[in-house]
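for the writeup, i need someone to sanity check this before i put it in the appendix. the sequnce is what the collaborator sent (i think, or maybe the updated version? ugh). structure was predicted straight from it, no edits. if anything looks off just tell me and ill rerun, i have time this weekend
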Amino acid sequence: MPAEIDWFFQRADWLHVLTIPVFTGVVGFLINWSGLWMLFSPVRFHGVTVPGMRQLSRVLPRKVQEVPGILQGGIGWQGIVPARAAKMGSIAVDKAIAKLGTPAEFYQQLEPDQIAEHIVQVFEPELPQMIDQIMRREHPALWRDLPPRARAAVVRRVQAQLPGVVRTVTDEIGEHIDQLLDPKIMVINHFQRHPALVVRIFRDFGQRELNLMVAFGFIFGFGLGIPVAVLDHWFAQWWLLPVLGVVVGWATNALGMWLIFEPPEPRRVLGIKVHGLFLRRQDQAAEVYARIIADDVITLENIGDFLLDGPRGDRTRQMLASAMRPAIDNAAGPVRGAVRVAVGSRQFDNIRDAMALEAVDRTIEPFRDPDFSRRQADKINALIAQRTKELPPRDFVEMMRSAIKEDEWMLYAHGAIMGFGGGLLHLALFGVGGPA
């Protein structure tokens, strides 16, 4: 063996040998740099529609179908993370948000009493105009014939009933919130509409680790290039560098992903502590994640939108309108019977129902007040941050990696292709290796 080593050093084409690790290091850096771009950019699909691609995609292998755009009939690219935003949202709810408790318990943390006070504060000044509009629409003659003093009395009675009506609304929402609000659907839909939020979750707390992964691409590539240089010199085959370049490219990306997410628990390997880069800062990640969810996803504003305009919006409106009708009857006071006789039972019910439905929209509208929603966001933020910090490391990894995991093969394939190209480029510049 010493004679063979001596022969290697004496007969080596050192320019050829030494440039191989440099090449694989640079290629490793470029692989991880471009792989990072593939992870996050572009946020929306960019590409072209190909006639017949949608039909052809159904018979393509499953892995090919996973390439962004293929199932939609296009060829192009969308960042892997934003393309899988909905899946990350689903797992995030299962792993962290669902641990906050049931929707009812979560709603109680938002302090319904404060919500009710805010609704009354916002709604009360609008009551006279709302009553006037409804009465002019439903029974203009009756409203026109009422003396101003009588109209003012109606408004005062409704205003006096308002706190009770609003309390009924917030109590009804709280009692039936498990049936009216689905946090999983809400989060998934919001992430689908705003995939840039998922990118922010990674970028805002993990940019340092992502940059480190790119730098390690050069280190991994250079280290792997040393045995490649020895093998290339030893066997002196033209095809060896491109083939080994595939191995180096694949391994460089795989090592980069491992560096970020594995191992989830600290371990010692050869006396060196190893721990996934993201996992080392789970607490900071939890703070960033919770702030984004509280400010942009599970907001009081979005809850109000979901309650009225979501898949169960009709049920919400009907339930709240039914709850309000007795209170509106009470607002009519002792003249209710006389008014019912004067305008007819059907017309009276129409006025009451119109007022109830109008009141539903007006009482939920303060949910959409951005300033009030931001104040409530602090409570949501504290809850989600606490639960995310308490997640077992393996669950935290799954939550963060879910947007990437099933598409990692694309990153590895991209690394293999770039490694193959790097091998061909070195071959073109320096020729076949071997003894000088």
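The chain has two domains: 2-91+206-282+406-430, 95-193+285-393. The chain has a mean pLDDT of 78.
thx in advance!!
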